[in-house]
Structure prediction request, 240 residues.
Amino acid sequence: METKLIHEVRAVKSKKELANIIKAQRISEWVLQEAVKYLRDGVGELEVANFIKKSFVKFGAPILSFPPIVAFGKSSADIHHEPNGTKLKRGDIVMFDIGTTVNHYCSDMTRTYFWGEPNAKQKKIYLDVLKAQDLALNKVMQGERRAGVIDRTARNFLAKIYKNNFKHGLGHGVGTVIHEWPNFKPKSGDIIPAGCVMTIEPGIYLKGFGGVRIEDMYLITKNGCVNLTNVPKDLDNVIL
Prediction:
């Protein structure tokens, strides 16, 4: 019981803590813009990941919350993909999952792009994942605070179409560590307190095809939530 209490106290962020998280997120957004501009036919995942690391140094936030995930094409079906020599080609899905720290406070964001016009299946997966995120968000905005209920809202929608291809929790608390209490999981008994920062990150991963994950950080408030992520995610904006 005592440890749970510490988690609960830690989950609720002061104004100063929140300011650090938001600053880390803004820096990540600048770096993401630079990384998108850096993309070109034939560039390798590892090269882009190294460019991302250098960009974080340039923007004054060299201590990352986790190593950047850069995944092209079929690699995007690997949830915790480690960037390798895979080269970017037209028609590829491009997934970035990045975050940094400011005064030990973390940020976390995933964006999925298309290098050229996506095909019908890629578009459908993208729009379904976006819809799943919206459904979860609407629950939070309606005042639902049971983590399991929020997770299942997104999961049940995706399961109707993709069976069991959403293979991780819907999201997690963010603070001085990248994954902290509470957690959005289907069987989670956590109650999300106002004042905590949570990710909402549904994803679909189809082996041999590719994956889509969309992740934003939200400040949970008494009556709803505020999106701390300021990067467009509508379909038009993710076609490069």
The longest strand covers residues 93-98. The helical segments are 2-11, 15-38, 45-58, 120-141, 147-162. The chain is about 35% helix and 20% strand. The mean pLDDT is 97.
